[in-house]
């Protein structure tokens, strides 16, 4: 038999619809007023603004076609990606690069390409870029410090550029160098690293189709703090391999000395492939904090080769990745 | 009209509020969504840094007495020390909860295998008995001599805390080295060899807590 329970709240106490609608309107107006009053309140009430999420514009590369290797994951907010950077040339704090890069002039710019190649040249940036079609590539970025982002880069395959200079059969590695100019890069006035910053790839890594040179992000021109005007992006390696503000690309026979590997060889290997099974001597690499996940979100599991193993694992077939970390 | 309040009457609440200010600032930034792209890291660094700063401040009070001769400064040692412990505890809770999400296996591995976490954990653990015996009743129960001997652990804790900072940075050791230098200086100033040259040493001798019952209320 069905027993009818009386309603918990007598109807006399239920607020009439028109009244509560009015209250809601009032609360909304209040929140909106607060949100308009201060950006801090906006962040608290309504999350990030449009400009914070996708960038303030303009977007000269908005039409760059999306490359199929792009991840479907939600990109990190533009604000986070451009205010939380490791770029020691402008200071060692995460917010230093955005704050201390005013004096840096990424244009005009030229890049020297030389070493073991048939057509060495020093080219102005526009000439360097002209033959290449820019693409939108959304890649995961995994920092060696166990945090990660998702960045929509604008760039083109490094291999296409390298081929133009016709490397000789002696070329085994590619060495990259960042601008050295303490007047523009105040972080270089302290000997935190052995300046200029240098990085390197094995030639087959450099020629791999996932390896790109980037000139933009979020459809916009690459900001100074993200490595303007030209930077490397190697998505299966820890972020520090993706050298910024490149002035020189050199084909070499021997494995080049690289900045972090020189600074602490036992901590930062030449390869530095993302590998959850090989800890940094001082911290675990098994998990990562995805920037933007929020205060209470747990870390995510780090993926082998940052999730690009299907494409790149063959490069390291037969190698002991614990030894060649 | 009332007389001018003696400093010890109003200085205590002032010191209390000063010690609380970093936490208030952190909460304020958090409410304003102003903790940056990595709020967990921001909270971890803020609480850790203030634990270390207040630990150094605690160690600075004896040299301040030796230099100025003002022994009243030692009145604030217990409060500042307890605040250092409070921030260290917040730092540890941030690590356990926000950073590790109570993944006890990973936490145990960190503490056992990562030297910078081992020493940081050690620095916190050493502060526990000091905080637990910080009441007047505990000073009486232990006796001044034993209490003082126990509380020398604060030197070890401050050293471990500084090493924790030094060993966690990637390449820029300038800031932790500054703390290490400060620690060495604060330790040197309290050695009898150096201490007797300090202007306030003689004046403060009568009031020094050595042989007294430790910090007064």
Structure commentary:
Chain A is an alpha+beta fold. Chain A has a single domain, classed as Oxidoreductase, molybdopterin-binding domain (Sulfite Oxidase, Chain A, domain 2), CATH 3.90.420.10. In chain A, 22% of the residues lie in helices and 20% in strands. In chain A, the strands form 2 sheets. In chain A, strands 3, 4, 7, 8, 9, 11 and 12 form a 7-stranded mixed sheet that branches. A 5-stranded mixed sheet of chain A has the order 2-1-10-5-6. The radius of gyration of chain A is 24 Å and the shape is globular. The N and C termini of chain A lie far apart (72 Å). Chain B has 11 helices and no strands. Chain B is globular. In chain B, helix 1 packs parallel to helix 3. Chain B has one domain. Chain B is an all-alpha fold and 217 residues long. In chain B, 75% of the residues lie in helices and 0% in strands. Classes of the chains: A alpha+beta (325), B mainly alpha (217). At the A-B interface, helix 2 and helix 4 of A face helix 2 and helix 4 of B.
Uncertain runs of chain A are 29-46
- Percent of sequence in beta strands of chain B: under 5%
| Morphology call of chain A | globular
Give the number of DSSP strands of chain B.
Answer: 0
How many domains of chain A?
A: 1
Biggest interface, CB < 8 A: A-B, 35 and 27 residues
Indicate the mean pLDDT of chain B: 90
Pattern of helices and strands of chain B: HHHHHHHHHHH
For the report, how would you describe the main beta sheet of chain A? 7 strands, mixed
- Count of structural domains of chain B: 1
Quote the distance from N terminus to C terminus of chain A.
72 Å
């Amino acid at each position: 038999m069905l027993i009818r329970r009386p309603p918990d709240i007598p109807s006399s106490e239920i607020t009439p619809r028109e009244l509560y609608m009015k209250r809601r309107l009032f609360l909304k107006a209040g929140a909106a007023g607060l949100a308009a009053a201060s950006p801090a309140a906006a962040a608290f009430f309504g999350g990030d603004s449009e400009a914070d999420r996708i960038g303030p514009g303009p977007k000269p590369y908005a039409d760059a076609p999306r490359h199929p290797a792009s991840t479907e994951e939600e990109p990190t907010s533009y604000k986070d990606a451009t205010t939380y950077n490791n770029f020691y040339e402008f200071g060692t704090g995460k917010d230093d690069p955005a704050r201390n890069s005013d004096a840096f002039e990424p244009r005009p710019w030229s890049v020297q390409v030389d070493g073991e190649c048939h057509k060495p040249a020093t080219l102005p940036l526009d000439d360097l870029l002209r033959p290449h079609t820019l693409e939108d590539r959304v890649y995961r970025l995994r920092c060696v410090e166990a945090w990660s982002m998702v960045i929509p880069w604008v760039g083109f395959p490094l291999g296409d550029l390298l081929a133009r200079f016709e490397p000789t059969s002696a070329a085994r590695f590619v060495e990259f160098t960042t601008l050295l100019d303490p007047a523009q890069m105040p972080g270089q006035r302290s000997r935190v690293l052995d300046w200029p910053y240098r990085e390197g790839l094995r030639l087959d890594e450099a020629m791999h189709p996932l390896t790109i040179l980037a000139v933009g992000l979020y459809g916009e021109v690459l900001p100074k703090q993200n490595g303007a005007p030209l930077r490397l992006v190697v998505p299966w390696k820890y972020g520090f391999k993706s050298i910024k503000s490149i002035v020189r690309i050199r084909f070499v026979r021997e494995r080049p000395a690289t900045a972090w590997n020189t600074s602490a060889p036992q901590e930062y290997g030449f390869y530095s492939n993302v590998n959850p099974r090989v800890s940094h001597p001082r911290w675990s690499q098994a998990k990562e904090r995805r920037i933007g996940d929020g205060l209470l979100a747990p870390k995510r599991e780090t993926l082998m080769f940052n999730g690009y193993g299907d494409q790149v694992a063959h490069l390291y077939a037969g190698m002991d990745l614990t030894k060649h970390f | 009209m009332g007389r001018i309040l003696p400093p010890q009457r109003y200085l205590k609440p002032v010191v209390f509020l000063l010690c609380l200010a970093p936490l208030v600032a952190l909460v304020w930034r958090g409410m304003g969504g102003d903790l940056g792209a990595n709020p967990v890291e921001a909270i971890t660094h803020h609480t850790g840094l203030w634990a270390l700063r207040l630990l150094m401040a605690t160690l600075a009070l004896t040299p301040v007495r030796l230099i100025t001769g003002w022994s009243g400064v030692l009145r604030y040692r217990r409060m500042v020390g307890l605040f250092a412990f409070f921030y260290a505890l917040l730092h540890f809770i941030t690590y356990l909860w926000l950073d590790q999400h109570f993944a006890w296996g990973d936490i145990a591995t960190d503490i056992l295998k990562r030297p910078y976490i081992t020493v940081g954990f050690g620095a916190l653990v050493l502060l526990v008995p000091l905080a637990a015996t910080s009441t007047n009743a505990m000073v009486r129960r232990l006796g001044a001599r034993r209490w003082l001997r126990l509380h020398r652990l604060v030197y070890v804790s401050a050293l471990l805390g500084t090493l924790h900072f030094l060993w966690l940075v990637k390449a820029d050791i300038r800031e932790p080295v500054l703390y290490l230098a400060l620690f060495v200086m604060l330790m040197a100033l309290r050695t009898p060899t150096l201490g007797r040259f300090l202007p306030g040493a003689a004046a403060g001798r009568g009031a020094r807590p050595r042989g007294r019952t430790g910090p007064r209320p």
